[in-house]
Amino acid sequence: MKPIVIKYVIPVITVLVLSLALVFPSPAADEPSPDPTGSSTGGIADIVGASAGAPTADDIKAMEAAEPLAAKVGDAVGKNRVAINTVWTLVCGFLVMFMQAGFAMAETGFTRAKNAGHTMAMNFMVYGLGMLGFWVCGFALQMGGAGPFATLGGGGVLNAEFTLELFGKEFGLFGTKGFFLSGGTYDVAVFTMFLFQMVFMDTTATIPTGSMAERWSFKSFVVYALLVGAVIYPLYANWVWGGGWLSKLGSNFGLGHGHVDFAGSSVVHLTGGVLALVGAKMLGPRLGKFSKDGTPNAIPGHHIPMAVVGCFILAFGWFGFNAGSSLAGTDLRIGVIAVNTMLAGAAGSFSAMIYMWLRYRKPDISMAANGLLAGLVAITAPCAFVTAPAAVLIGLIAGLLLCGAVFFVERTLKIDDPVGAVSVHGVNGAWGVFALGLFADGTYGDALNGVEGAVTGLFYGDASQLAAQCIGILANIIYVGLIGYIVFKLLDVTIGLRVDPEHEAEGLDQYEVAVIAYPDFNIRSSPR
Q1: What digits encode the pLDDT tens for the residues 273-304?
Q2: Range of 149's domain?
Q3: DSSP letters spanning 327-342
């Protein structure tokens, strides 16, 4: 594997980054200065978050001259506000990072013992590999033009977005500052944002490891993990969160507040779900999954308690995922966001359990656990904009969509998805974004994406918001589906996407990774 990485991956990424550095030169001397220590970040101008009501530089100078004590108190208050928001954002980022343990346990538990070490290895290494790709160029492509960050008191150095002018409007495509976290972006607010955005990217990156488990070659996984953090994820994330064209559908074309995704139903989960669908389709099913007549055969996971604990860990980390996306511990809406998150997850597990109970006369704990995740995925976009009853309804629908999608993917599309990743993340990622366009109640989100007024959905009087949500869903499916197909196809024809059938039958722990998960047990098996 090492020669392959040296021959293909490192040169491609190096050429890409150096090309971008040549095309987009260093900032001029009169641009905002980075603050690597935080000593100059936060002050009286941040009392209300550097918004339209914040004091101007002239106001501050006048206050310092006329009321020096009040100016000092105001400066301390603004500094503390930024400090609280920074700590909140970092702690929530740590929670999201811990979700990787939940993914590892859930995916490993839902697959077979002979591949447990391999599945764990992918979930472990996608963290580091994706992060390095994101550090090299992914963060710059996503957030290079997104600054400043009002709640964090800085980040103005991220002020370069590559745009195209169409129909007399600017369409942002990707950022151009922040490669290697260098070039004038050595700044506390930028680094805080990097950590928080990186763990979101990592969630996306790990979703296909579940749908492609038990037959994905580790060497092709390594290349994928680098590319998803460097290029695949950041471009769509820029369009929604980095000031790109989807976020400007409102200010440019009057479509609500543009495509709104508070915490990632589309940016994270739909992206991961589409990649999971394309990857699983190209890999083909596991040996023995389908009979000759196309009938699917059950391949039970080896450790359901492990999988359930993994889902609980994911639910715990989701509080950082959703409430943390406020980027502000001083934004008291985080209480509403957290409760909506809980309720939707509970509703998703309930409806999935009841559906399976009624249909098969017994509750299915694995489907209920995935129902919990489905509800959480669905509430991720609208969590800040909806009421508690709407959150429960969104979760109930998510659990039902999960069950229907699992059977559709397996029985109709003939795609083998061992953990239900396509249904959990893809289908319910799209549902969550759509639900925002329906249920946003107009109480939160004033001036989001540069549009006056709060975010309002169809049922509260703004059909244009739903239109923006649908455009974002369609753009994701087209872009991610296309780039996912290209990446997986190139990997397949160069280094091989799938393991040898003999190795798959014996177990990937035996042939793909150095450590066997259960060496004291004979867990190898032959294909059916």
Answers
A1: 999 999 999 999 999 999 999 999 999 999 99
A2: 2-21+42-511
A3: --TT-TTHHHHHHHHH
